[in-house]
Design goal:
3 helices; Umud Fragment, subunit A; 6-stranded mixed sheet; mainly beta
């Protein structure tokens, strides 16, 4: 399934060895209705811990029987810095969505038909303490009851919706408009770890930047 992950994505300039679609920069967020934090609706959020992040590893093949040319063929992907994640977009048509590594959870295990959509934080109404725009990862289950039965639509929930032209919108709505359909429900949105301004215990050894 091809997912429109970001309007900023340009296949001509995308470098598969570098992660990230959004251009980091200080943003002033003007929330439109349907975004996180509007209408007394708040999208479930989950921050990455400051511990070493999961890594995406390319496979060279199976052993025994592995040959040297197979061993040398994969091009390794960069590991994500602590508190963030990495993802890879393939440049062929076989699997245009790519891959991402995220922490496991019982919630994900209970929803095996879950996909990820990389979003510019401002596009869904999420702000960070430092005012900088970042990529966030919306984990969306396609098993939600409203996918098959529009009567199960919940105005308190956030969904991935398709408008009559097939454009995807991630938001809440009071009611499902005519011609729109539910593609999935947002389980939660994964955010990178961002240290809050002034966070710290006052001792150098408690600083994230302190080396023993």
């Amino acid at each position: 399934m091809l997912c429109q992950v970001s309007e900023d994505y340009d296949a001509k300039t995308y470098d598969p060895e570098k992660s990230g679609f959004a251009v980091n920069g200080v943003i002033e967020l003007d929330r439109e209705e349907g975004m996180h934090g509007t209408g007394y609706r708040f999208m479930p959020l989950m921050s990455v811990s400051r511990d070493p992040s999961p890594a995406i590893i390319c496979l060279a093949g199976a052993y025994p029987g592995l040959r040297a040319e197979q061993f040398n063929q994969p091009r390794p992907l960069p590991f994500a810095p602590s508190g963030a994640w990495n993802y890879h977009v393939l440049t062929n048509d076989a699997a245009p969505g790519g891959f991402v590594a995220v922490p496991g959870s019982d919630l994900l295990n209970a929803h095996p038909d879950t996909i990820g959509v990389v979003c510019a934080s401002a596009s869904i109404g999420i702000e960070f303490p430092d005012g900088v725009g970042r990529d966030v990862l919306a984990l969306i289950t396609r098993q939600d009851a409203a996918v098959a039965d529009p009567a199960a639509f919940d105005p308190q929930s956030f969904y991935a919706l398709a408008d009559p032209e097939g454009v995807v919108h991630i938001r809440w709505m009071e009611a499902l408009p005519a011609g729109w359909r539910v593609l999935g429900a947002v389980l939660y949105t994964q955010m990178p770890f961002v240290k809050r301004k002034g966070e710290g215990g006052g001792f150098a050894e408690m600083s994230d930047d302190f080396d023993f």
